Amino acid sequence: MEPRRLYRSKDNRMICGVCGGIGEYFNVDPVLLRLAMVLFTCASFGTGILAYFIGAVIIPDKN
């Protein structure tokens, strides 16, 4: 059994596929993660945008 890897999603992509990839990795609906990301961004005065950008840069694309 090979270990699971975190990738940005090609199928569940809205902007860069970060929330879709995290949803596939944890087997959670990406819509819930996107909603949580929007709420986090509003509550943290924009820090969520920085976190999403860092995730888009660090997490590799799925081949």
Short summary of the structure?
The chain has helices at 18-26, 30-43, 47-58. It has 63 residues and is mainly alpha-helical.
What does this structure look like?
The protein has helices at 18-26, 30-43, 47-58. With 63 residues, the protein is mostly helical. The longest helix is centred in the middle third of the chain and has 14 residues, at 30-43. It is globular. The mean pLDDT is 92. Helices cover 56% and strands 0% of the residues.
Q: Give helix % range.
A: 55-70%
Question: What can be said about the biggest beta sheet?
Answer: none
- Strand % is under 5%
The rough form would be described as globular
**Low-confidence spans: pLDDT under 50, at least 5 residues?**
none
Assign the structural class, choosing from mainly alpha, mainly beta, alpha/beta, alpha+beta, or little secondary structure: mainly alpha
Number of helices: 3
End-to-end Cα distance: 19 Å
What is the averaged pLDDT score?
92
The value of Rg in angstroms is 12 Å
Please describe the structure with a list of short key phrases separated by commas or semicolons.
mainly alpha; 63 residues
SSE arrangement:
Blueprint: H1 18-26, H2 30-43, H3 47-58
Helix pairs in contact: 1-2, 2-3
